[in-house]
Amino acid sequence: MNRFALIVFCFLLFGCTSKHDKPLSQEGKDIDSALFHYKRAREKTLSVKERYQAINRSYQYLKNDLEDSLYGPVLFQKSLLHLLSKEYDSLRIYHDQLANHAPKIKKVSLLAEQYYLMGYYFSEVEHDYHKAIENYSLSKEYYTQLKDSSRIGINLLNIGTIQKNNNDFFGSKETLTDALKFLKKPKKVAHCYNALATNHRKLLNFSDAIDYYQKAIHIEESAHDRLLYKNNLAATYIDSKSFDKAMELLNKLVKDSTLGRNQKEYARVLDNLAYAQWLSGLPIEEEAFKKPLSMRIQEKDKRGQIASYTHLGEFHSKSNPVKARSYLDSVIQLSKSLKIPRAEKDALKQLMQLAPKAIGIRDRYVFLQDSLYDQELKVKTQFAKYRYDDKLKQESILHLEKESAEHQLEAAKQRNQKIISYSGLALIVLVSVFAGFFSVQRAKRLKQENKTAKIEATYATEAELSRKLHDDFAGKLNHAMVLLQNGAPDTEVLNVIDGLYNQSRNFSRKINDIDTGPKFKEILFGMLSSYCRNTQLIVTGSTEIDWDKLPELSKKTLYKALQELMINMQKHSGATMVSIHFEALKKKLKVNYTDNGKGASKNNLNHKNGLWNTEKRILAINGSLTFDSEKGDGFSAQIEIPN
């Protein structure tokens, strides 16, 4: 169980009463007894055994009264106490009861806490990370309904940590970055920075890893946790071969009085210091590694023993291969007992260098590598699915709210029409004429609103597609998988994946939604310039345009139209000069585009989907787009849009 998860779980354990909870029912003698024992079960001063007995009594009074409002809270408390008592089969039984009872539970906070509890159970007890992500995601969804940003952030932090622990470093970075938007308390923010730093360290992005570790150290209030982050920072210096910085920091930590009170962390610092000294080329004896190992054995720190045995294996790999194999065998045995296949795989990798002809070692390494890859892929795929499903749910909620508002508006209109119909015979003719005129205008307005809504939906769809296309570069992804299967160096694989990731990000930004605020002109001209690095761009008439008064939809359409023209120029024309002239007419904005490229026949222009889509956008807002081009004679276009 990691320390942060324990802190958060205790927070839930001792803070189960939410500000969103409503008073419980107290009807009848049995209900009074159930309530009394329920309150005892939540009493922090009692032992777990006493609380366990109390909640069982409360449940006995209620099990035949499923409609009582106390039934849900009792089921949650039973789940919590079964978890604390390590009765995991019972925990799952009563969780299923509560989940089935969920439609009758009016306290959303109770469901949020229950699914958080199960996320913790699957993550820290069962190590079933797929179900852990599922339950943390459900908990986040309920806390989103409550607008409880702190708990939203904690769920995201837990999910991001699971992704990190399963080598989904890119996905973890995105999740943890989202978590930072919600986390408020410095301690939780520091934990998030520490996890982000580890992601960057694993991706060999040492400069960012160092920055995030330093941020965590700066805001962390606990001296003990600051020491942990400093040790992580020193390990990053070792990974980046900055041995002098690592030794300087670790020598300071050794003298820290706080460290002396924690033998487990003291051993870690000593082991890292010995490792840094050895890698730097300083003369060092085996005892420098064996001292922290002895401390770890005394403290029963098996994870720490894995690190010590690994370092000892490296230390003796050249001078005494037999001894090195003995230490690495210890790593493998501990890894199996603790169910840490990655540590076993790393040890097998070193053993293959010591015994390259050992087929059994090689086969076991390949098996672990494949199974770990499958597990990592499942985590990545599952979280992507939950993220997509969550987005669909949010869109569905917004759609229902919109429909409800429209129904209420329509009902209000119908009531007003009935009142008007009772007005009197003298106004019948006037009302009839007005109603006819109103109906015609309303039909026109609704038609225009419908057309506008479709256009805005198009832009929203494009923005959504840009995010989804982040994962659709199948060719490069297949290349990365081939590299992995062929055992290519980690740096080469990471370079391919990082390029794929950055390319998807850049493409997403390129087609994403447009800022139509005060900086629109600056953004528009920046876009134009980005396509003209090797082409001269001449813009005239822009200073005479009142950009702030230009409608938002016209700005978006103009941006997309000019962007498509610039893309067409860059890909097909080979132009060396582009001229764009803006002219404000009475009711329209006129834009003339010209380049000196090789042009194209009108028949070819009709088959360019980008230009065809551009024309559709402009026509939809009552604008116009005309082309004038012949092959070899350059290209020109005239745009007119409402202003």
UniProtKB/TrEMBL annotation:
Its EC number is 2.7.13.3. It catalyses: ATP + protein L-histidine = ADP + protein N-phospho-L-histidine. Keywords: Kinase, Membrane, TPR repeat, Transferase, Transmembrane, Transmembrane helix, Two-component regulatory system. The chain crosses the membrane at residues 419-440. It is an enzyme of class 2 (transferase). TPR repeats lie at residues 190-223. PANTHER family: NITRATE/NITRITE SENSOR PROTEIN NARX-RELATED, NITRATE_NITRITE SENSOR PROTEIN NARQ. This is histidine kinase. It comes from Zobellia uliginosa.
